[in-house]
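SEQUENCE WITH STRUCTURE:
===
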Amino acid sequence: MNLFRLNQNDPVYLPPYVEFVKIWDRAKKNQELVNASIQILKKQLTFIPNKNPFETFIKRLAKDMDWLNQESLDMFHQYSFVTLRQLGACYELSKTYLQWLQQNGEKNLDDVIEIFNNISTTAKTTQFQLARAVSKKKPLDFSPIEKMGQDWQTAMNTLQKLYL
């Protein structure tokens, strides 16, 4: 098989990975899509943890600070990417999703949208504060993460009241 090749067959060459796409007989109309999305949201809200995950994250990050101070810059970037950067991206996407719901008729989401935006922005800011703390070997101020946790709880309570 000479996939994307001009020369001879290479026995160690793997073809590209491809996913199968299921094509339904028709696309959902807008309100059908909104309704289906809300059903998925309701199911996801049943998985909200009993313990605030920001509290757990603060404890873990506090333990990891000594370790991060001893690690390479590359390791810091990896750690920062899989924690604060992903956290910020997650809440940015969550905000965008709720804005879409709101644009399609859902009410009372303004406060949660604002909270998710604040969590996203604070996560990005905290990423820079963490970089500064690690580079200067100084303690990190955890109060912004504590505030994110309080805001998260408020947002989850609101979403549960609205959809469960």
